[in-house]
Design a protein that fits this description.
It contains six helices and eight strands, in the order αααββααββββββα. By secondary structure, the chain is an alpha+beta fold. The mean pLDDT is 96.
Length: 207
């Protein structure tokens, strides 16, 4: 795979443990030694999927996942690491799939939501160093991180992702619930203040 540090695997890339920098081809660490959130790593993954399948990654995603899940207004409209475009309706379909899989193999979902390379420290963007910075194969894991963008009522088993565009999706298996938020404001202090409170209110209401 181009740009890939020697010894890095697909699992390293998808778990942000490859050693690649956030947004460049610079190698910042040996694979499996540090959690470095890397959009570049997801670009490498997309290139690998395209090379293996012979299908442009955006088309592969649409045909293999978005279409079957009924996510008809979602698309990849830019780099694989941050070029996704979607709607609240489509993301609730995705959240439902993560709770009761119909397309995903149970083993795949289990691997995606369990810590890959346990014990790795790293910076959680916007929240500083986390020791450890647990991550699954694709999803960030709530675990016992503090501070965090989910609420104090979210269980450690909560998994999901938030974006610099002011969006988030979390699934809390223990609560049997998921939450999606899309905004038109870039992530900043307002999100740090509002999101945990909002998540706690959602879980309180459901309880």
């Amino acid at each position: 795979m181009p740009w890939c540090p020697q010894g890095a695997t697909v699992c390293h890339l998808i778990a942000h443990a490859s050693g690649l920098a956030f947004d460049s081809e610079e190698i910042r660490a040996a694979p499996g030694t540090k959690r470095i959130y890397s959009n570049t790593g997801f670009a490498v993954l997309a290139d690998a999927v395209a090379a293996a399948s012979g299908i442009r990654f955006a088309d592969y995603l649409a045909e293999g996942a978005l279409g079957p899940l009924g996510m008809t207004t979602s698309r990849l409209d830019g780099p694989a690491g941050y070029g996704g475009v979607s709607t609240c309706a489509d993301l609730t379909r995705f959240a439902a799939e993560l709770q009761v899989p119909t397309l995903l193999a149970p083993q795949t979902l289990a691997e995606a939501t369990q810590t890959a390379y346990p014990g790795l420290d790293g910076v959680l963007s916007g929240y500083g160093m986390q020791r450890p910075n647990d991550w699954g194969q694709g999803f960030e894991l709530r675990a016992h991180k503090s501070p965090h963008w989910t609420g104090s009522r979210n269980s450690p088993e909560t998994f999901g992702h938030f974006g610099r565009s002011g969006t988030f999706l979390w699934v809390d298996p223990k609560a049997g619930a998921a939450c999606v938020a899309l905004t038109d404001r870039d992530f900043d202090q307002w999100a740090k203040d509002a999101w945990p409170v909002f998540s706690d209110e959602v879980l309180t209401e459901l309880a």
